[in-house]
Amino acid sequence: MPKLTVALLFGGRSSEHTISCATAGGVLSAIDRDKYDVIPIGITKEGAFTLQPDDAALFTLNPSAMPVVTDNGTRVSWPDSAASRELSVTDAAGESRSLGTVDVVFPILHGPFGEDGTVQGMLELLGLPYVGNGVLASALGMDKHFAKTALEAVGVTVAPWVTVTAAQWAADNALWRGRATSLGLPVFVKPARAGSSVGVTKVTDAAGLDAALATAWAEDGKALIEQAIVGRELECAVLSGRDSGATRVSLAGEIIIAGDGFYDFDAKYLDDSAAQLVCPADLSDGQLAEMQRVAARAFEAIGGSGLARVDFFFTGTDFVVNELNTMPGFTPISMFPKCWAASGLAYPQLIDELIELGLQTVR
Question: Where are the beta strands (DSSP E) in 183-243?
Fold first, then answer.
């Protein structure tokens, strides 16, 4: 069987640039080279599409020196119409050459300008098959306010919240402060459209709201103020069904936080001692079945395709959806591949499955 050519798209303009690069390192090291030829396309922090070396070591997750896409002067050009799947590159000296025909694009981008439907829309305009969620699901999943609204509409329990812009907060501070404090304390303040816990603050005193909101608004124009839910932090990984089959959900994983902190960016990627990831989580068969049912329901509610990670708080009686991530962290140490590995699907096979789903999906 001839090899497929996969354009691996990573980096990007968001604050999660380095995590996307680390995911690229994981994929480059694990993808089956007997099945796939890979074109690594790194998007710089300024938004330039560059041809990067096919070298996983350059993008290894390293807390002391996080990987980035270096602008090496190359520029990758996409097809000029949906009639072609041929990519080309112009090098730093101005010489152009073909990169060949692409079978599927694997956009492992996190955050705005990549996970939010923007890149997905570009790929659909070009008629290129791609891995993961489509435009609507990506946009919904990225915007926490509208994701919660969609989930509530189908009966999925979410934490109570208030969404506010800086202009609204300034125009009627008393009104919005009252709505925020009515949620009780503590609350979590987070950007509406960001991931990897970037810009998230735990607020234990109402006096801390202004600073927390400023931190969130630095990432996005809308901020969520969300009631803190007391419970175990659980996650599970989701894959679309093959050949129009049922949505598949992995075993559950649990995040155990050291001390009284929360699962912020440092705990996820920089400090090994801040949190413990346990998979499979200690749940009864009935509890696991209910969590998997809710996860599938949430995925289907946004029109999901390909993959997602659904994050929960488990109160002991209820599974409360915290977030639905349409392009979850995909480094080898991330919960998404860990949960599938515990469920019997190893990292290289998970990559195969995602590519196959991308080729199957009708947009």
Answer: 187-191, 201-203, 222-227, 232-239
Q: What is the DSSP letter of 130?
A: B
Give the structural domain span for 194: 161-227
pLDDT of residue 261: 57
Amino acid at 82: A
What's the pTM value of the predicted model, to 2 decimals? 0.91
Return the DSSP state at 260.
T
The whole-number pLDDT of residue 197 equals 73
- Determine how many CB atoms are found less than 10 A away from the CB of residue 92: 11
* Residues 99 and 239 placed together within one structural domain of the fold: no
> What is the spatial distance between Cα 193 and Cα 115, in angstroms, rounded to a whole number?
10
Structural domains of the chain, count: 3
- Within-domain flag for 135: no
Please give the sequence-ordered ranges of beta strands (E in DSSP) within 166-247, or none if there are none. Answer: 187-191, 201-203, 222-227, 232-239
Strand partners, 164: 223
Q: Kindly state the DSSP code that residue 266 receives in the 8-state scheme.
A: I
Mean pLDDT taken over the chain: 93
